[in-house]
From TrEMBL:
Name of the protein in question: Nucleotidyltransferase
GO MF annotations in UniProt: transferase activity
Pfam families: NTase_sub_bind
UniProt cross-references to InterPro entries, sorted A to Z: HepT
Entry keywords, A to Z: Transferase
Tree of life domain: Bacteria
Species of origin: candidate division WOR-1 bacterium RIFOXYB2_FULL_37_13
């Protein structure tokens, strides 16, 4: 029962983070400081997303959830997410996003978050919401 509560508590934090991310996404143009904020917000939202999925999967009896890559694979196999490749890409691009001082990389990260990563986070969020 403790695990059941844990994933729901983490989902609550994920919900708050995704709401903040949505505020960035809804702004059509961001200055360089806002882009840094968007990227940081994406990073912690992504972290909460996979950890919420991890807790949820563990509550459902799936145990191979030590690493983000395993969680993504299990989430794809259980149809919590529809595109495992974009999740793996986002996981790998976390390193790119650490370099927000580089304007070209920050612009690339902004584009990826807006065009691919935000919608994948929303999909997981909505699929988990069904089990609340």
């Amino acid at each position: 029962m403790a695990e059941d509560i844990r994933w729901k508590q983490r989902y609550d934090n994920f919900s708050k983070a995704i709401s903040q991310l949505k505020e960035f996404i809804e702004k059509p143009e961001l200055n360089k400081f806002e882009k840094q904020g968007l990227i940081q917000c994406f990073q912690y939202t992504f972290e909460l997303a996979w950890k919420t999925a991890k807790d949820y999967l563990e509550e459902k009896g799936i145990q191979d959830t030590q690493w983000p890559r395993n969680v993504i694979q299990s989430a794809f196999q259980t149809e919590m997410i529809s595109d495992g490749h974009v999740w793996i890409e986002a996981l790998e691009n976390r390193n790119l996003m650490a370099h927000t001082y580089d304007e070209k990389k920050a612009n690339e990260a902004d584009h990826l978050i807006r065009t691919k990563y935000y919608s994948m986070l929303c999909e997981l969020f909505e699929n988990l919401k069904k089990d609340l």
